[in-house]
Amino acid sequence: MSGCKISQTRRDVLKTVAGTAALLAPGVFLVAAPAPSKARPEDSMAQPSVRWGLLIDTNRCDQECTACVTACKDEMRLPSHGRPASDPQYIRKVELAEPKTGFTRSLPVMCQHCTNPPCADVCPTGASFKRADGIVLVDRHICIGCRYCMMACPYKARSFAHEAQTGQAPHNPRGKGCVEACTLCVHRVDAGVVPACVEACHAKGRGAMLFGDLMNPEHAITQVVAQYPTSQIRADLKTDPGIRYHGI
Questions:
Q1: Is 158 helix (H, G, I), strand (E, B) or coil?
Q2: Which of 103, 206, 233, 236 has the most CB atoms around it within 10 Å of its CB?
Q3: What is the DSSP letter of 20?
Q4: With a cut of 70, which residues of the chain have pLDDT below it?
Q5: Which residues contact 5 (CB under 8 A, 6 or more apart)?
Q6: Which DSSP category does 118 fall into?
Q7: Cα dihedral value 18, 19, 22, 25, nearest 10
Q8: Is-contact 243 56, C-beta < 8 A?
Q9: Which pLDDT belongs to residue 4?
Q10: Could you tell me which of 77, 75, 60, 66 has the C-alpha nearest to residue 204?
Q11: Going by DSSP bridges, is the β-strand pair 136-138/128-130 parallel, antiparallel, or unpaired?
Q12: What pLDDT score does 24 carry?
């Protein structure tokens, strides 16, 4: 599989700064540099040793750039039916505005891969579940299409497949009547490669995305989160998202 490999150490991070770094603040860089290439057990009861996460620097996210959205659609083979409201969408761009000051920010929003995912709590069949490494997924074999998870998700991050599916990607089997959402490109992560949105952001955008293991002190994402202010969307809900933002 081609793409940016997930690097493991601080030394690896420093080696890649020149080619893949994105300015976070004067003297601070975001680098697309995550960790080991092992599949993790799909067992949320296991003691976690990895917590995959994503940090998005909204200071670097261009309002006009949709590289991450396009890359996701291409990677997951999500078709367009000409109905934006019902087309499958795992990641979308959202514009935030402060009415009093006029301050605006553009940011990508996807499944937030919560520590305490409301979607899994309400799912009657267990189709919505969280892996031990923090990635939240949908098992389409047992999804009954009740859409309880869609109602429970405070981030509006799930889609529903209304049509029969054709031309599917082997790593993203889709079926009519199933709920779906961002998987953090789990097929790439398990192979040691960063998600498609992150790769595209660094190749075609402004390098606003950083992916890595939030529990590994050697990873750039962990070091940045420890040193600089970051936010979680609706942190008050105590879902503890694995997706963090800088600049909002």
A1: strand
A2: 233
A3: H
A4: 1-48, 83-86
A5: 37, 192, 193, 194
A6: H
A7: 0
A8: yes
A9: 66
A10: 66
A11: antiparallel
A12: 45
Domains of the chain from N-terminus onward: 10-246 (3.30.70.20)
Three-class DSSP category at 142 = coil
CA distances from 80 to 73, 179, 188 (A): 9, 16, 23
Distances (CA, A) of 118 to 78, 91, 133, 190: 25, 19, 17, 24
pLDDT at 10: 42
Residues forming beta bridges with residue 181, ordered by sequence position: 158
Digit-coded pLDDT (tens) for 217-228: 999 999 999 999
Cα(37)–Cα(35) distance, rounded to whole angstroms?
A: 7
Nearest to 160 by CA among 149, 171, 172, 169: 149
- Closest alpha carbon to 94 in 81, 78, 110, 83: 110
Q: What's the number of CA atoms in the CB half-sphere (13 Å) around residue 231?
A: 10
Q: Which positions ≥6 away from 8 have C-beta within 8 Å? A: 35, 36, 218, 219
Phi, psi of 174 (to 5 degrees): -125, 150
Q: Is 185 left (phi over 0), alpha (psi -120 to 50) or beta?
A: left
pTM of the model: 0.82
Angle separating helix axes 67-76 and 196-204, nearest 10 degrees: 140
CA–CA distances in Å: residue 90 to residues 108, 111, 167, 180? 10, 7, 17, 8
Half-sphere exposure of residue 175: CA atoms within 13 angstroms, side-chain side: 10
